[in-house]
UniProtKB/TrEMBL annotation:
Cited PANTHER family: GLUCAN 1,4-ALPHA-GLUCOSIDASE, TREHALASE
Domain of life according to the entry: Bacteria
Matching InterPro entries: 6-hairpin_glycosidase_sf, 6hp_glycosidase-like_sf, GH15-like, Trehalase-like_N
Protein name: GH15 family glucan-1,4-alpha-glucosidase
Taxonomic lineage of the native organism: Bacteria, Pseudomonadati, Pseudomonadota, Gammaproteobacteria, Enterobacterales
Organism name: Biostraticola tofi
SUPFAM superfamilies: Six-hairpin glycosidases
Gene Ontology terms: biological process: carbohydrate metabolic process
Length: 609
């Protein structure tokens, strides 16, 4: 573990700086821990469950679980190498203590309950600690109550049962329905353990504290073993491995689904209303995460995620939804919660109305991912093959339609990226036929429609005055998602591509590598991390490795400020040097991996699976 930079915890009107949150998880739930030892976000038992702790969305009445020294202190914090076990050193005037945190699992997989463990060890001197537990109310919708049992205090929150399990040296000052207060002191070689055990609609198992303590190390071993089995040996390996571990937070092991992020309603701009619920599985995001898993050599994760995608689409029929719940069901309609929102940014949403949008790019995502999966040395079954053929036919039928685009906008237009993705879908469908993975019945049709899409794009989506492919047909606005056109292969004029990338960097990056999503959006939001890394990957594809590498270095230099533990959000405000948007954000982490892979010049045939 490298020596981390010190942080002096500070809250602004009760809110932690987003860049100071670290995540822990076990492949089912994700907790966010502030620099002052407070767990401000945790949905249990699953990522898309109601929040048990939600102070990140309401500093006044949100739930939290905080352990911090009683006096003045600063911290040094980092993950263990190749692990999602978090270590925090509390450095005070009287001593030093080390807190190790994990949501535990076993070597055989996840536990049948949630087990959030916090171990505090004395290193030097004495450090008095206080514990504050405020049970959440499912975003102000449930009243919690506690019950005395022979094994301790148990909290009931709706259908959840939760128990705080603590070492004998933890002295509880008060219990109440809404939480508890306690204190303890660390001394050299002291060992204190606190665990929060949670189950839903089931009996609550209370394992011995010694077993919980051991499972912290078991969990660490599990993370290290997963990393050891990855085949990535390219450039920026430290950042790639950390992003890979962050993506594992979003892999929902009960089903194989991949969540877009672990939070809801973290704003894209403070005080703005672009606050959405990302705790669901988007086809687009899942396909791109699978791509990064292929580059990493994470075979089991690739198979599980692709199988879940195929099964979910076949379950609901070929009419694609943009996103599904992590169990593969339709996403609920949006509703607003009575919470203040992060730093007053409202509304706070549960559910997502984008699920019913038309997004033509999903055809390219699915067909492109199928080819990538096969290129990695795997096979698809007959049912998946037929489903892919149905999607290709849908694409051939619908590519002339307007849609909401990759950015899920309210205005239906002929978005350039959507048309490019339709070209990719049919091109990959033809390839799958030629390689014997899809029935050849419609091959000639797909080939003709593919060529028509290419001609339509060149005729309608190129601006001579801007010397760039534009946001949508007939527009003079620009869109950073066209950096994904490198997936087009050799059918795009390289001069037009170079000109487009220059225009994007000038207008959407103001000359830098940090790109906004599209023209005119910078007043409402911050630079979009994935777009910035997509540009790196695109420059490599255009044989501009020096500019690509310089851009990569610039991005990493911008987004790795003091105290950041490389848990990437959706956006980064270059004006204030602060993070924005939901976290951990899958698109941000996967795009870093893909950019690093591109710079490394790696090819699939170089991998060991």
């Amino acid at each position: 573990m490298h020596r981390p930079s010190p942080i002096i915890p500070h809250r602004d009107n009760g809110y932690e700086t987003l860049g100071n949150y670290a995540a822990i998880g076990e492949g089912r739930s994700v907790a966010l821990i502030a620099s002052d030892g407070s767990i401000d976000w945790w949905c249990a038992p699953g990522i898309d469950s109601p929040p048990l702790f939600d102070r990140i969305l309401d500093a006044g009445k949100g739930g939290y679980f905080q352990i911090e020294p009683t006096g003045r202190y600063h911290i040094e914090r980092a993950y263990r190498d190749n692990s999602n076990v978090l270590e925090t050193r509390f450095i005070t005037d009287t001593g030093i203590a080390l807190m190790t945190e994990s949501i535990n699992s076993t070597l055989a997989g996840r536990l049948p309950w949630n087990e959030l463990a916090r171990r505090i060890e004395g290193i030097e001197g004495e450090v008095p600690f206080r514990l504050s537990l405020r049970i959440g109310t499912f975003a102000d919708t449930i009243n919690a109550w506690h019950q005395d049992t022979s094994l301790g205090k148990v909290y009931h929150i709706g259908q959840l049962m939760a128990m705080i399990h603590a070492s004998d040296d933890v002295n509880f000052d008060s219990y109440r329905d809404q939480g508890a207060e306690a204190h303890f002191i660390t001394r050299p070689a002291s060992h204190t353990l606190l665990a929060l055990l949670v189950t839903e609609n089931e009996p609550l198992a209370i394992p011995p504290l010694e077993k919980i303590d051991q499972r912290i190390e078991t969990s660490h071993t599990g993370w290290c073993d997963w990393v050891e089995n990855l085949s990535y040996r390219g450039e920026y390996r430290q950042q790639v491995i950390r992003s890979a571990l962050s993506l594992k937070f979003l892999w929902y092991s009960p089903s194989g689904a991949l969540a877009a992020a672990a939070t809801t309603s973290i704003p894209e701009g403070i005080g703005g209303d672009k606050n959405y619920d990302y705790r669901y599985a988007w086809i687009r995001d899942a396909c791109l995460i699978i791509k990064s898993f292929v580059y990493l050599g994470a075979l089991e994760d690739c198979k599980a995620a692709f199988s879940w995608l195929a099964a979910t689409i076949m379950k609901h029929g070929p009419e694609l939804q943009t996103c599904y719940t992590l169990s593969g069901d339709p996403v609920p309609e949006e509703r607003f919660l009575p919470l203040e929102g992060y730093q007053g940014s409202q509304p706070v949403r549960v559910g997502n109305n984008a699920s019913a949008q038309c997004q033509l790019s999903m055809y390219g995502d699915m067909l492109g991912t199928a080819v990538l999966f096969i290129d990695a040395g795997h096979l698809i079954d007959i049912g998946t093959s037929r489903m892919l053929g149905e999607l290709a036919n849908q694409c051939a039928d619908r590519w002339r339609s307007t849609d909401s685009g990759i950015w899920e906008l309210g205005e239906l237009r002929h978005y350039t990226h959507s048309k490019m993705a339709c070209w990719l879908a049919l091109n990959q469908a033809v390839s799958l036929v030629e390689r014997g993975h899809i029935e050849p019945t419609w091959k000639d049709r797909w080939s003709r429609e593919r060529d028509r899409i290419r001609d339509w794009i060149e005729a309608n989506c190129w601006s001579e005055s801007r010397q760039s492919y534009t946001f949508f047909a007939g527009s003079e606005k620009l869109d950073a998602s066209v950096t994904l056109m490198h997936r087009y292969g050799n059918d795009v004029n390289p001069q037009r591509m170079r000109a487009t990338y220059r225009a994007l960097r000038h207008e959407l990056g103001h000359g830098s590598a940090m790109l906004y999503r599209y023209s005119g959006v910078e007043e409402d939001e911050s630079t979009f991390i994935a777009c910035s890394f997509w540009m790196v990957e695109a420059l490599v594809a255009l044989n501009e490795p020096d500019l690509a590498r310089a851009s990569m270095e610039e991005i990493l230099g911008q987004i790795n400020p003091t105290g950041n533990v490389q848990t990437l959000n959706e956006m980064f405000d270059v004006r204030s040097g602060t993070w924005r948007g939901n976290l951990p954000q899958g698109l941000s982490h996967l795009s870093l991996i893909c950019a690093a892979n591109a710079l490394s010049g790696h090819r699939l045939e170089d991998r060991d699976y």
